[in-house]
Amino acid sequence: MKPITLTVAGLHSFREKQTVDFGSLCEGGVFGIFGPTGSGKSSILDAMTLALYGKVERASNNTHGILNHAENLLYVSFTFELENAKGAKRYTIERSFKRQDELKLKSSVSRIIEVGEESVVLADKIGEVNQCVQDLLGLTIDDFTRAVVLPQGKFAEFLSLKGADRRQMLQRLFNLEQYGDKLNKKLKNKLTTAKSELNEVAAEQAGLGDASTEAIKSAEQELKNAEILLEKRQNEVNKIDADFEKSKSIWQWQLEKSELLKKSVEIEQKKPYILHLEQTVKNAETAALILPYLEEYESAKQALDKATIRYQSLQNQLKTKKQENEAKATNYHHARQEKTEKLPYYVTKKQQLTDAKVIQEKAIVLEGEANGLQAKLNSLQSLVREKQKIIEAITASITDDTEKQRDRREKLSKLTVTAEVRDELQKANQLKQTILFSKSNINEQKKELENSQIQLEQLEKILNSQNEVLNQAKHRMEVLFLKNASKYEAVCDSERDSEKLIAFAEAKLSMLKQKLEDNRKMNLAIQLADKLETGEPCPVCGSTHHPNPVSSLEDHGDEIAAQIEKLSNDITIVRELKQEFSTLKLKLEQISGGLIGEYPGEMNAPIQAKKTVSDDEFEDVDGKLQALVVEQKSLQQDYLKLQEMGRKVIQDLRASLKQVNQLEQTKEINTKTFNELTSRVLNLQEKTKEQYLHWKQSFPQLDFETIESKLEDISKNDKLAQSLSVEIENSTTLLEQKEQEKQKHQHESNELERQIVEVNSTLKSKLEALSEAREKLLREIGDNNIPQLLVETEQMIKQLEDNESRAYEAWQKVQGECQKLENETHAALQAFQDGKSRSEKATSKWAERLESTSFLQSSDVMESVLSKHEQEELGSQIERYWDRHKQVQTDLQKVNDLLKGEELTQEKWDEIQRVRTEMKEMLNQAVEAKGAAVNALQVLLEKHERFNELEKRRNELEQSVEQFNKLQSVFKGNSFVEFIAEEQLVQVSLDATERLGILTRQRYAVEVDSQGGFIMRDDANGGVRRPVTTLSGGETFLTSLALALSLSAQIQLRGEYPLQFFFLDEGFGTLDADLLDTVVSALEKLHSKQLAVGVISHVQELRARLPKRLIVEPAEPSGRGTLVRLETL
């Protein structure tokens, strides 16, 4: 990491923006930052940490009180480079803060930019910027101020770090997190994941149930039996289907014949109606032939009537119109004569009135101009009077304002406060605000403490509630375990019953077999006895005497053989049931095992007395067998319910346990937080008490409670004085403005008086011209209204012209209408003559045609007429009827041929359908049974395969868990990272010993003790080892300097960026001249190692030795802020 530039403004004593060019400073390897005490040297390091981490370590709450008291804005910008083998990257961090109150600041801008050809903003929020810096550098602010930039009070801190703090710091400095916390976290996550997966695998195995090879064989046998039954049912259905199809055809033909007979009856019933339709169509065809003659006859008659009426009407209209024409001609000649006589008089009168109107309008204009000038004159005179009033008012106001300004100056002189009083009050108030802030912080911490206590109480309630939920889940598990145990006993009882039933049935089977054998022997004896002859030897005993031969008995052999066969089948079924009971018992054992594995407590089922069954119950083998079958199905259903309940209760228990564990962890964290807050509140209270005692000692003459009121009084006086100053300045400006305004109004008043003279002259000439125009009008027109006379004259002229025009137009219109009527009358006469001739011809032809038909009059013809569409509809209807009649007869013949005399009753057809439905249902049941057997086998095969996979995975996971446990034991307590850190620390101590030897002339060396801490070896006293706490101030400085330089030389930020600079801000004042010379010489040699070292001091001897210097000039009181400048030898 290499610094480039640092810009700061508003921080501590800095006011104006100042920029430090580290690029030039670092060229010499060692440079100094010099200035008097309090000039702001350490503020440069504060600006660097503020830019990088948003904090100033020596400030209260990291940012309180760091803003210059005369500024409201603080700005820092830091540009640096990170360089590795791949190249260099440059970054700029900018932060701005605004004043919130006397102490507190509020961040306004915070961003980090990667500088390049195109700059990129990497983050622009406070948290994101801080995280980005942490990611880039890999150092916290504590690491940075212990090993890179060492401000006052931090120099020897690393030397005395112990335990976890040193380990955590070394992890970050040497990028060892991957071997420490990160490695342990990764290992813990791996172990947790492996254990979780192992539990899941075991749970899944338990949930798979019985997936053994025997279970698969049993399922395969069930599938084979189902396939045999399905084949049998299919053959039966195929046979019944063939019979059904034949019967179905006969039944459908019978139904079809019945429908055809119904249709035949309906067709015969419609036959008379169809014959009537045929006659109607025939009449329509005859009527259609003579209809044109009838239509012509009617049309000619109507046309003649219309022509007669029109001709007579037009003759009457023509006579009336000729009389009207003569009257209109007379009116026109009268109007024309009147216009010729009167028009010249009215035209002359119109011209005279027009000339008089012009003169009258001119007089009106002159009168308006005169009135306007008179109004303007009155307005100007009024304005002159107003201007005089304004001038008088301004003069009075100027006098009054001058008196008020004198009073303000006297008040201002009384409000002045001395700088000494003001500074003392401000310092006292600043310290008081610090104390008040501490008290406020205590109150906030107390609130946090109360909230933490409330949270703990609430968490305790929630934890108790969740424990109750957990206990309920455990109780449900216990109940389920007892239910499972009860069902297990029932399965065991059923299994024992099946064993007893097998034994009893086998014994009964032996008896039946023996009985069958006895029956066979008896039959043989009877056969021999039947063949015995008196005197013939017996083939068995050889005796010739047969006193008591076996008589013939009823043969029961077939009956016994049937019983033997049935009993053998029953034994086979019972054996299968026994196997199913055994399988079910294993499944229930798995449920119990799963419950016991989940519940850490003890679960024992109560010992129940075994069910005793008398031998009499086994006498009825069939009844007992059916009872066992029912019991097996019932227990199977119970098992499925228990399995689902077990899955649910285990799931609930796991969820409750997880919740309780999380709550207990949260409670532990909250308890720790509560204890820390309690300790923090006590420390803050003690610190605040010390601050208050210090304030009382520093300002004994001031009252702690009234300090703000005094400052407020001064502030009010300052504001009042500022207000008075502004008022005095404003009143001075206002007086000048009023004087200017007075002169302006005086000038405007003079201008108005000049305008009055001009308006008076113009008004006089206008009045003279108006008087002349009025006299002329009086002579020519008198008092008459000229516009009214002009309108009346124009109306008379227009009336004469309109009368003539309207009379002429009316005459011409009537004359045209007469001509039109004469033409129409002539045409009507011709139409009448043509219509009469046409009517006579049509009447003759119609009478001739009517006689050739069966119709008596024209109305009969019209009634018989049908449209073409209607004829087609009736023809189509007739044709469809005969086609349907023919089709029904044909279909009847076909159905009779198909039936061949066979007949099927309704009862027989219903019986066939019922039998077929029952057989189909039995086939479906067989298909479902086969499907269920296939699915059961497939599920079992999948479970078997999955169980083998899970078993393999379980073995792998158990091995992984064992390995992770061993690694966790090895890495427990961060021992591994401590070992690496200690090795790294040994290398640092060796390099530091070499540097310390140069600085102390081989007197001291640094070693690492068995606890990983530093210990001094005093070679000047025979190599005696002593604690670092026994070193003097100068020795501590030299030792810390050697360690810090060695550490800085070996630091690789994030494991890849070398640290290229180092800052020291204390310690040189503790060295004598010779030792100071030695230290500076050692620092000057660092340039060859590419490490720039900056020292901050006020020691003049050190300033004289360093070629590159940054001079810090202190701020001026109530003036400019701190300035920086580069100085080179």
From TrEMBL:
Residues 184-243, 297-331, 428-476, 721-810, 912-970 form a coiled coil. Keywords: Coiled coil. Heterodimer of SbcC and SbcD. PANTHER family: ABC TRANSPORTER ABCH.3. Belongs to the SMC family. SbcC subfamily. This is Nuclease SbcCD subunit C. It comes from Bacillus timonensis.
